[in-house]
Amino acid sequence: MLKIGVLGAGHLGKIHLKCIQLASEHLDLVGFYDTDPANAEKVSADLGITAFDDLNQLIDAVDIIDIVTPTTTHYELAKRAIVRGKHLFIEKPITHTVEEAEELLELSKKHQVKVQVGHVERFNPALLALDADQLDPKFIEAHRLAIFNPRGTDVSVVLDLMIHDIDIILSMIDSEVSKISANGVAVVSSTPDIANARIEFKNGAVANVTTSRISMKQMRKVRLFQKDAYISLDFLEKQAQVIRMFDKDDKEVQKLDNLMELQTPDSTKYIHIDMPPIEPINAIKMELETFAESIEQNKRPRVSIEDGYKALKVAYDIIHEIEAKANSL
């Protein structure tokens, strides 16, 4: 069993601590460190977990460090853990700057440690339901809308919310980004609160992403369009719908029920609508457990440090595009 320590016991940090306690078959929670002694004492008493007052002592006592602190502190804390040979789980975004992420990527290779980035939507049941499907989207449309919350407005909505969909899109399209167009508006804060980006890939695929944190309702939907298939994912409601089109002589047609016939100018097609079964899960618990398994089995983490770096780089390319347009006005 791998020993783990948590850095940061704020709102999300406490959730991580509770989830690690639930994952006791895979992880041994040694303790946590928080810069606020009063908060550390309270969390320790409430959850029955040892609070360390020495950061280095906690790092030396574990196999894995779980960083759940403000993004601006990620780099220094991660570097301190990596050079001591500790595996690392780090919340998204991986670092405050692309340059910091690049250095952590090189350090992780040098010290041969595994790093997983906390893009938790990769563990949403709606997306997990498609694990067995062959995805090759040519057009993706994503909408992530949230009701205004002052927490998180110190950064652009691109880093706060859109980065979730950026990571999902990059995981689905096996091609390099060729062009980015973006617009954004700061409505109630000093950085963009609503943004739209068009991401074009070298293989011809395109993603259109819209994110807002000033909406009157919540929405987290992704729609995928690929040859002979339309896939709809609702991350909020945790639902997936797969609509596929088959040729009349396709062998798969014989295995399917509830087919709808469609006459096209060239031939007869069949449409099949599938609602994949959704298994209820604790996404944070699952991402921590699968990270432990990747260490034990020497496998690539589901959301690797390379994934976290790529998502951050695209996010900053979008931010720079928005800033360039704003400065040209």
Structure description:
This protein has 329 residues and is of the alpha/beta class. The protein folds into two domains: 2-122 and 283-313, 3-Layer(aba) Sandwich (Rossmann fold), CATH 3.40.50; 123-275, Dihydrodipicolinate Reductase, domain 2, CATH 3.30.360.10. Helices cover 34% and strands 29% of the residues. The chain has helices at 11-22, 37-47, 55-60, 71-82, 98-110, 125-128, 157-172, 283-296, 305-328; strands spanning 2-7, 27-33, 51-52, 64-67, 87-91, 115-118, 139-145, 177-185, 194-201, 206-212, 219-226, 229-234, 239-247, 259-263, 268-274. Strands 8-9-10-7-11-12-13-15-14 form a nine-stranded mixed sheet. It has a six-stranded parallel sheet with strand order 3-2-1-4-5-6, sandwiched between helices. A hairpin with a 4-residue loop joins strand 9 (194-201) and strand 10 (206-212). Helix 1 (11-22) crosses helix 8 and helix 4 packs parallel to helix 5 (98-110). The N and C termini lie far apart (57 Å). The mean pLDDT is 93.
List the topology elements.
Elements: E1 2-7, H1 11-22, E2 27-33, H2 37-47, E3 51-52, H3 55-60, E4 64-67, H4 71-82, E5 87-91, H5 98-110, E6 115-118, H6 125-128, E7 139-145, H7 157-172, E8 177-185, E9 194-201, E10 206-212, E11 219-226, E12 229-234, E13 239-247, E14 259-263, E15 268-274, H8 283-296, H9 305-328
Helix pairs in contact: 1-8, 4-5, 5-9, 7-9
